[in-house]
Amino acid sequence: MKTICLRGRIQGYCTMNRPDYDKMMQSEIAALKQLKNGAKPRLLLHSCCAPCSSACLERLKDDFEITVLYYNPNIEDGEYEVRKAEQVRLLSETGWADILDCDHDSQKFYEACRGMENLPEGGARCLKCYALRLERTAEEAARRGYDCFTTTLTISPQKSSDLLNRTGEKIAAEKGVKWLHSDFKKRGGYLRSCELAREHGLYRQNYCGCEFSRMAAEARTQAKTDK
């Protein structure tokens, strides 16, 4: 059982008996392939950005027929268009997945996070944002008959794979579609995503995407400048 203390930021994870989500993913992939009698299972992969998706797609492409859902209402409008274009370019260059186009309704993000605007990064506002994006992914996966869904977010060293997987499990149960556990940062995943981003000349950003994370990144940069 994990211990979580919410005072604007998630703290104090208990590491005892925490599942190895990467090993769980490998077992789940084997089980899905067996059920499909050799055919590739269909995976709907929520992607936060092209650089993060690169290593995830490379790892999954031989086991799944993948569609990327680029659903990120948290990202500011202009930034969203730049990042989406890079996602489309990566998929076009590699052929690793198709992309499912969707709306970009930033108002949904602001509505979900109302009252949490001033909370620090990594806290309750971020949890709401994760849930918002995973709920949409699960709904699309269930509606379109995908075998499972998951997210690239677990590749980030700044994000808790435990919280993301527990959120995914809960939403999967509610929506009636299988959640594929993951911890893509394992087995050098994050470093590989950096390598692939350089190979493909992908635009990289130093913040998650919402205006609150951008302002936090700007404050960190200014603090370093002022030293």
Secondary-structure map with pairings?
Elements: E1 5-6, E2 10-11, H1 21-35, E3 42-46, H2 50-60, E4 65-69, H3 77-94, E5 98-100, H4 106-112, H5 124-144, E6 148-151, H6 161-175, H7 189-200, H8 211-226
Parallel strand pairs: 3-4, 3-6, 4-5
Antiparallel strand pairs: 1-2
Helix pairs in contact: 2-3, 2-7, 5-6
Which properties best describe this structure?
227 residues; alpha/beta; Rossmann fold; four-stranded parallel sheet; two-stranded antiparallel ribbon; 8 helices; disordered N terminus
Description of the molecule:
With 227 residues, the chain is an alpha/beta fold. The chain has a single domain (20-226), classed as HUPs (Rossmann fold). Helix content is 51%, strand content 9%. It is built from 8 helices and 6 strands. β3 (42-46), α2 (50-60) and β4 form a beta-alpha-beta unit. α2 packs parallel to α3 and α5 packs across α6 (161-175). The longest helix is centred in the middle third of the chain and has 21 residues, at 124-144. The chain starts with a strand and ends with a helix.
Question: Runs with pLDDT <50, length 5+?
Answer: 1-15
What is the CATH top level name?
Answer: Alpha Beta
Tally of contiguous helical segments? 8
Rg? 17 Å
Percent of residues in β-strands: 5-15%
Structural class: alpha/beta
Give the proportion of residues in helices. Answer: 40-55%
* Strand line-up across the major sheet: 5-4-3-6
Q: Tell me the total number of β-strands.
A: 6
CATH structural architecture: 3-Layer(aba) Sandwich
What is the N-to-C order of secondary-structure elements (H for helix, E for strand)?
EEHEHEHEHHEHHH
